[in-house]
Write a structure and sequence with these properties.
298 residues, mainly beta, 10-stranded antiparallel beta sheet, 19 strands, Lipocalin, 8-stranded antiparallel beta barrel
Amino acid sequence: MNAIGWLGLALAASAPALKDPPKKAQDLTGEWMVERVTAAGRPLESSNLVYKFTADGKWVIFREGMELTAPNRQYAADPKASPATVELISDSTRAATYREGIYEMDGDTLTMCVGPPQGARPTKFESIGEDRNTIYVLKRKKKDRAIRGAKSMNAALLIGLTLGISAPAPKDPPKKDVNIVGEWVVESQMSGWAPIKSPAGLTFEFTSDGKWVIHRDRAGAKTAPPRNYTVNSNTDPPTFDIVSQSGSPLALGIYKVEGDTLTICFASPAEEERPKTFESADGSRNMLIVLKRVKKKE
């Protein structure tokens, strides 16, 4: 080997090692809009959900701008792990709500893969039927996004909006009657494909002031104190929520009325996603109830 070769080796040996590129910030603190949720390989309804992670370890969930109340919801994250780890705790007083996961951030996009309650931490970002993992894809919420969008609106668009406002709107087709006020006899109940035996004569009464009264028989004997409910018939499908005395959602659902038949599908109170379809598949904790309207005696 000639002198030039030796000199090249010596310079290479004495040169400082290249530094690893700095890690990207993995701070979860802030508000995140939920773009999609996949559980056990199946997409879940996640519209209008916002997750907020605070600097002191609180995990707050908003739906349509309203906070979903839950006791002691917390989180913990370790951005230095590889991949970064996260623990989501729906209720710190109950071990059954503790879920371990991993997360990664790419610009304003946050992806979390979380295992089932008290299950093993996922090792990769995937959700298939057997693993019961849940993948959340979220986008960081920027407070000034709406302001910037409004300022950038040009005159042509404003003129178009003005013309659109002045033009007569086409008439919407008449809406189907989706009023659930009245009495309904329970025909069937199902959870996770398993039928639930209903007592003979079980009747639900929905009052116009938001009370849900349960009668065990037609004589009017109540099985439990009245519950509270809210509906929104302007959504597709209409929504049905069981709520607390203060109006906070306890269980999220959907409903449909077809003639004298009412079908309600709502999630378990432990779930944060509203059902998207009228089904209670195997392994699901959704409740599917089919009822028939009680006709008034003439």
